[in-house]
Write a structure and sequence with these properties.
Blueprint (H helix, E strand, L loop, with lengths): L1 E5 L3 E6 L4 E7 L2 E2 L27 E4 L2 E4 L12 E5 L3 E7 L2 H4 L6 E10 L2 E10 L5 E3 L6 E3 L12 E8 L25 E5 L10 E3 L6 E5 L5 E5 L5 E5 L7 E7 L19 E3 L4 E10 L1
Length: 290
């Protein structure tokens, strides 16, 4: 099922399947990547309760066995619509026996999309509905058409942060998805801007961790693009497909993919949030169409 949010400036479509963004239109321009299996068939999946991968797809969380594929269980299991209006919709997913076979914890995950002007706010709220501790990371994975205009090329775009970055980025291994934190890459250091090039993504995503910057712009030569504000997230990934896909994903994550120096204990991983029974936590990011 598709839910449409609209106002005088923009039209947003959200899919109940995966509770994800499906279309972002302003001035008759589609900003959101529409998926193409030749490059990447996804659009904007929700990553929960892991971002990235587990080593060999397995971990132990407070003594319980977890078996999850890349980006976790939320995106591949059903959501219900909790409430909706002209400019907002809230989806909800609660743990089921099928989900608990992979991630053996009780939770409720609400995902709310709100359209105000030309800005879409995504809010994730995680509730611990169980009797024990609930560990998780969470993140977004929206990809944007690049270029947006017929007279532009991929290389006409750049990502600009609101602060100068003073350290090198990480990269996941292109085959395993695991991160070696002893290796950093100087694609962006002591500057706030990086020019897009398909060669940047031959070795997978750029992972900017423990960010002081909380705003990223993806802008082309004609001034069209998106602004992402990610105040509640410590990390952001910039990614495109290794085979020259005409899109760029900006991915705000609370954690990062499993690192080689981490053990199999899930709750010990970087960026983990742990909720006590009956506790909840919320995380927001905003996408503004420019």
């Amino acid at each position: 099922m598709t839910v449409t949010l609209k106002n005088e400036l923009c039209r947003v479509e959200c899919l109940q399947e995966g509770a994800m963004l499906h279309s972002l239109v302003k001035d008759e321009t589609e900003y959101l990547w529409q998926g193409d299996k030749n490059y990447w068939g996804g659009q904007a999946p929700v990553c929960f309760p892991i971002v990235g991968v587990l080593k060999n797809g397995k971990a132990k969380a407070f003594g319980k066995e977890c078996n999850m594929a890349r980006h976790g269980v939320a995106r591949i299991n059903p959501f219900d619509i909790k409430e909706q209006g002209e400019n907002f919709v809230t989806f909800v997913q609660s743990s089921t026996n099928e989900i608990k076979a992979q991630f053996p914890f009780d939770y409720s995950l609400e995902i709310k999309y709100t359209l105000n002007g030309n800005t879409v706010t995504t809010e994730y709220t995680v509730f611990n509905t169980g009797s024990g501790k609930l560990p998780f990371t969470i993140g977004g994975h929206p990809a944007f058409n690049c270029p947006l205009c017929d007279d532009e090329e991929f290389e006409d775009y750049f990502v600009k942060f609101d602060k100068v970055l003073t350290k090198k980025c990480l990269r996941p291994d292109v085959h395993t998805g695991l991160i070696d934190v002893s290796k950093r890459y100087s694609v962006l250091e002591n500057t706030d801007e990086i020019r897009m090039s398909h060669t940047l993504f031959v070795d997978d995503a750029m992972v900017f961790d423990n960010m002081e910057s909380k705003t990223a712009l993806l802008i082309g030569k004609n001034g069209k693009g998106v602004k992402m504000e990610f105040q509640d997230f410590d990390n952001i990934l910039v990614w495109s497909s290794a085979n020259g896909g005409p899109f760029v994903a900006l991915e705000p994550w609370t954690g990062i993919s499993t690192c080689l120096d981490e053990d199999e204990i899930f709750e010990n991983k970087r960026g983990m949030t742990v909720l006590e029974p009956n506790e909840q936590a919320s995380f927001k990011f905003k996408i503004t169409l420019i």
